[in-house]
Specification:
- This protein is an all-alpha fold.
- The protein has one domain (about 1-20, about 35-145).
- The chain contains 5 helices and no strands.
- The chain has helices spanning about 1-20, 35-50, 55-75, 95-115, 120-145.
- The chain is globular.
- About 30% of the residues are buried.
Length: about 150
Amino acid sequence: MKKKLLATAFSLTFSCLTVADSTSEVDRSFPAEDTPAALEALWAETNARLDLSDEQAEKVAPILQSNFESQRAVLLEYGIDIESGKPPAKKLGYQKARAMGRDLEAVRADTNDALEDILTDEQMREYQSMQNERRNEMRKRMRAAR
């Protein structure tokens, strides 16, 4: 049960980060990819790549859950429901997309600050690398969906 909770928190956080970070493309449809098997695979990869201790995993999970909830709230405020996998009801204008990007960046900065207290420098670099990889994957999928 604990592993599934951690897997869900990590996967939802990464999904939020990748969808939200591509603010210039948020008005495009984006796939919902969070299946139980995908969550378990993502947690296994994350745990392996970060080499989290049990203590770290227990501390990281609530931070990522809070991050997910905060980012989801920001996205919903701008009319984007990442859980449905459907495109927003109406396009975001440039100014709203930029404002949303700033709001999401503030959430990410808070999350990174909290994680820096738990993860080693090497783990933090790997976490940021993983975020970048997921962001790039999402951008490719969104561009392919055009």
